[in-house]
Amino acid sequence: MGCSMDLEKCFAFYGAYHSHPVNILIHALCVWPIFFTALLLFYFTPPFFHLPAPLGLPLVFNFGFGFALLYALIYVSLDPRAGSVAALLCTLCWVGSSVLGSVLGFSLAWKETFDKVLEIPVLILESTQWQSLPHVPEVTQVVLAAQLLCWTGQFVGHGIFEGRAPALLNDSSQAILMAPFFVLLEVLQKMFGYEPYPGFRANVHAKIQAERKAWRISKQKSS
Q1: pTM above 0.90, yes or no
Q2: How far apart are CA 114 and CA 139, in angstroms?
Q3: Cβ–Cβ contacts within 10 Å for residue 23, how many?
């Protein structure tokens, strides 16, 4: 189910796969860290062009910049107000990942970022055969641990709590591109009652219920 740039349709598509509170919480905790770490990795890609760094910050206009800019522009086009908040978060993630990458360097960036969050999986990896593989650098092991934890957490949220396969399996491009914004939009709705416009929440809720009903009927027919 594609949604183009229709915010109601897009958010309803996302909401139909994220209705259980635990699954929603897991995504709220995992989605933006995945985005941040992607920018941290992209920090080490070659620059598209060279410009003076504002405020002396070690900003590089490379894939990380392009990645953050693309997301920010799409989010603002979907909803100027919430999209501006999301664009600010994208900018902060880009700046923060750039500073972290420049200070620590490639070999330490991923490890320092996730040592505290991923202490248990990192220790597990270090105690297994991964550590003895000469062709797998330590930084790669930590990157894999970070991504594994975040992605596995989301799949667990869907499999155990949601009881439905993630949207990623049906529309991977939309799921990856829209997830950070929809996590933020959901937080804004639940905490502040935010709506992009009056009636948005009711319209999305109706679309979600209709989609989930169709999914349940389809599931019953196939079983």
Answers
A1: no
A2: 11
A3: 23
Residue 133's Cβ-side half-sphere holds a number of Cα atoms within 13 Å equal to 13
What is the C-alpha to C-alpha distance for residues 43 and 143, in angstroms, rounded to an integer?
A: 14
Q: Is residue 150 part of a domain?
A: yes
Alpha carbon distances (Å) from 77 to 59, 113, 120: 25, 31, 40
Residue 56 tokens read as 């002396």
Alpha helices in 116-199 (DSSP H): 119-126, 138-156, 172-192
pLDDT band at 216 (very low <50, low <70, confident <90, very high): confident
Tokens at 115, concatenated: 């040592």
- 220 found inside a domain: no
Q: Are 88 and 95 in contact (CB under 8 A)?
A: no
Contact, 95 vs 19, CB < 8 A?
A: no
Local confidence band at 134 (pLDDT 50, 70, 90 cut-offs)? very low
Within a domain: residue 223?
Answer: no
